[in-house]
Amino acid sequence: MVKYLHEIRDPIHVFVRLTDEERKVINSQPFQRLRHIHQLALTYLVYPGATHKRFEHSLGVMELASRVFDIVTNPNSISPEIHDNLEQIRNPEKLSYWRTVLRIAALLHDVGHLPFSHAAERELLPKGWDHEKITREIIQSEEMAKIWSSTTPPLRPEDIVKLAIGPKEDEDLNFDAWEAILSEIITGDAFGVDRMDYLLRDSHHAGVSYGRFDHFRLIDTLRILPDPETKEPKLGIEKGGLHSAEALLLARYFMYTQVYFHPIRRIYDIHLKDFLVDWLEEEYFPIKVSSHLALTDNEVTSGFLDAARNGNQGHKHAIRIVNREHFKLIYTRNSKDVEQNREQNLMVGKAVSEALANKFGAENFRHDSYSQSGGSPDFPVKLNNDDVVSALSESDVLNQIPAISIDFVFCDSKIFTEANEWFRENRTRIIQNLREVN
Amino acid sequence: MDNSEKSALILCIIDSLAEKDSWSSETRIQRIVYFLQYLLEVKMDYKFILYKYSPYSFYLRDKLTSLRANRLLKLEADRYSGPRYVTTDLGKKYQEAFPNTLESYKNKLELIINSLGTKPILELEQLATALFFTRLAEDQESILLENRAKEMKKWKPIISIDYAQEVVEKLDTIRNNMLPDTKNLSLLHA
User: What are the DSSP E strand ranges found in A285-415?
Assistant: First the structure.
C-alpha cells in the first residue's frame, strides 16, 4: 500500500500527494532548478500571467500519471485479450514497481530543459545533444543514483530514463508493449498526461479558456484496448469518454493556434535565440550536468537586461526583448498563395523571406515555419457492445480538427512601412516563384 | 534524399498502395518504408526502433502529420481498419515537381508494393520484425542468425516458436527472390 505522507497545493489539481522517496527527488538539485525555468519561455511578454514554471507542471504530470495508471490497470477495466498480452498486469509486485517508476519518470521528464525551455534548443546545443539527452544524464547521475538505490525495491535508472524520455528521442531504446503503454501515459499523442497538464495549466495562467476540458471524465474512461487494425495494446477510451477526448484535442488545437503559435510569442523566441547566440561564451549551452544545473532563466534574464542597459554582448537583440521593439509580422502563408506556388506551399514563406532579404538586407527579417508533428488523432474506442473501433470513424469532430502549420515572415519595425509597400507591389511575382523541376 | 524528395516519395507510396486497393494506414506505410529502406536500400534515413511488436519510426510518423498539416494528405476513417492516408489534389500536384526522383525509385517501389503491399497487416508486422532481427544479426552481430525466431518469440511471447520460425523462413525466401546476389539465408532452413 502506497503511503502519501506529504502534500503540495496546486492551482490545477488542488493537491499533489507525495511519498517519502518522491520528496527526496523533489528536494534534489536538478528538480529544484525547475522552479527557475519558465514553462512558456517569454510568453509572459504577451500573456503577463504566464509566469508559471516547469516545477509545478512536473508535479502535475506526476499526479495525473498515477491517476491514469490506477484506472487503466484496475482489474475491472482490463479485457481478457489485454490480460493475456501484458504479463505485468497479472503481477501485483510488478505493477507496484512500475507505478513507482512511472511517477518518478513523470516528475523528471523535463529535468533536462534548458533555460527558457524550447526557445533555443536546436541551435544552441552541440550536435547530437538535446534536452532529453541531458535528462538521461541527470537521471543516471550520482546524486540521483543514491535515491534509486535507497527505495524498496531499488529502482532501475534505465527504466526511469525510458519512461521519462519516451521512445522517439532515444534511437537505441526498444519499447515492448508494456513499456510503450506506460510511455504513452506520459507522452502519448492522444492521452499523454504531459499534454493534459500543460494545456490546463497554460490556459489557467495565460488567462484564456481554450485549454480547458473535462479531464476528470476523460481519465475515468481511459482503457488499454487492442488497436482495431493491428491488435497491439494501445491507450483508448470507452465510448462514454469520446466527447471529453474530442474536447482535449480541440483544446490542443486552440491553445496551439492562439497561444503557442501567437506570432508575437514566436518572434520573441527568435530574438531570445539570437541574443543567446551572442551571449553564450562558448556558442553552446553547457552539457556537463553540473554546469547545466547552474544555468536557469534567472541568469539569462539578468544577461539580457544587462546587455540592453549597458550595451554588452547581445545588445541589439536584448533591446528588442526589453524595450519590446520586436520585429513585426509582414507575411503569413495562406491557402491561395499555396496553390499559386509551384512547389506547393512548403516554400512560400521562405521565398517571401529571401526576396525581402535580397532587397532590404537579411538582418532585417526572420522566417519562422513549423508543421505539427506527432500521430494522427485516432485511438481505439470501446463501444457498449464491447466492439473496439477507430475513434475517427466514431467521432464527427476529430477528422475536422486541422493539423497545424505556420509560416511567418517578420520584419524590423524600423523599415516595416517601406518593406510592406514593396512587398505588396511585388507579391504575385514572389509567390509564384517558378523554379526548375528536378 | 532531401526533405522535399522524401515527401514526394511518401506521397507516391500512398498513391501506389491505393492503385492496388491496399488500405494505406499508417501501419502499412511504416512497413513499406521499412522494407524499402532495409530490403532495397532506398536511403530515406528514417530511424526505426522496436516499438510494441514491430519496427516503428517516430520521425516517419511526424512526417505523415506534417504532410497532413501542409494539406498534401488527408485522413479517411474506417470503423474496423482504422484510418488511411489519402493524397489530396495538392499532394498529387506536388509529386509532379519531382519526376526524376520518383522515376529513379519507381522499380524498387513497384517491387515492394507488388510483393508485400497487399499482404495482411499482421503478416507485414511479423515480416518486418523478422527483418529487424535479421539486421541485428547481420549488421550488428548482436544475435545469431539461427536465433532470430527465438528473439521474435521473446519480444512477442504470445506467438509460438513454430510460427516465428515460419515467418523467418518466409522473409528469407522473399529476400532471396528480391536480392539474388545477397547471402541466401534460405539455405539455413534446408
Answer: 328-332, 365-371, 380-382, 388-390, 405-411
